[in-house]
Amino acid sequence: MTTRRQFLHAMGLTATGLALYSCNVGKPPTAQLSEAALAVEPVVDPKTLEKPNITVGYVPVNDCAPFAVAYEKGFFRKYGLNVTLSREASWANSRDGIIFGRLDASPVVSGAVTNARIGAEGARKAPLCAAMTIHRHGNAMTMNKAMWDYGLRPWHEYNGNLEEFGRDFRGYFDALPPEQRIWAVVLSSAIYEYFARYLSAAAGVDPIQEFRIIIIPPPQMVNNIRIGAMQAYMVAEPWNTRAITGNENVGFTFAQGSEIWYGHPDRLLGVMESFINENPKTYRSLVKAMIEACQYCSNPANRPEVAQLITDPSFTGAKPKKGAIDKFTKPGIVGDYNYGGFDNQQRIISDPYTTIFYDSPPKLSYIPGIHSTFLWQSQSLWLMTQAARWGQIKEIPKDAEKKAHQAWRTDLYREIANEMGIECPKEDYKIEPAEFFIDKKAFDPSDPVGYLKSFEIRANRPQSLFLS
Length: 468
Known about the structure:
The chain is of the alpha/beta class. The protein contains 19 helices and 13 strands.
């Protein structure tokens, strides 16, 4: 039980953190470029670009790594860009900054671009575009200590038994008063919300009826679960690792997002369609710089350095009071991932694809030319099925494929990648195999409506009436 004193103390910490946090918004990470960046010789003359001086957003989570690297290592400079990095307070700010013209480009949560095109409830309707992902995976679900004490455990300890997990999950929420049945995510109408709902429904618990979902910015997650504002949350690293035993001691990692859908896109490089049309050369330079930054982050030899780089207050500011400087950021970047727990057991799983920045894992490498920054329009269609599944749109758009093409610009990416000598997949669509999803349900993009109707738990599903 949280006392009034504990609540006020935690809220004070949150307010102080936000005050300090907001001081950094809009400021570049350093007063001037690093020596490494200044040493890079541009291959593109800034004078040839329509808009060489641009402002690019980022949010203080691990996936700011490619932006930090592009800035510190001179990839922006290499392609003729003078970039001001703007630290955004939330994922809504990151998205809205693009839409309202404060930012030229920024990472957005997967789903934000698609849902802006289809006008999903909870998303701003705007002609957003993306030509590349920033990373895949790199996120997780954290549950509080009370859920552990009830008997819930990390997903991999259930050995794929959704029924067993469902009993534990339902039992815990049934014992709570309705006002406490809360799950937090970072943005509405986006993949984290869909994952929270997808997992619950897969276990037989209707997320519409059983609990509600609230929106909280990443840096506020740990304090809010500490004071009991929610029972669980989904967020990018390092805000799951910070919660576990030995760090903040307020929760444990239930599952990484890759355990819900393996290979899913997490962050996209978002821009307005008008930015591409008005600044085609600038846009090409930006994408090239970000591809090279993602390649740098993907190299195992560079990951320890990257994990340390993003601890800087200008990026995540995730420095522990005690222990190694990269204690919070390293697990998600290097791949020695600790699920935590409250029984003194080791739950560390080593996987270099905990976050995928560029090189694809063997599980995904059956398609020639596949790499992480390439977008699949079929995955945009999957996001539309979830928007329809949870009532954010009435139905999957009749022109869903057209909207997917407008939003996820694989055509542009192929042109840009070709200029860099990078091979790409020839198709825009692929089937997501059953083994990639937690409920073992494959997604065939040729029949999104059939896929949607295959789910028993969904909004606006037909109701059976019994007369006696």
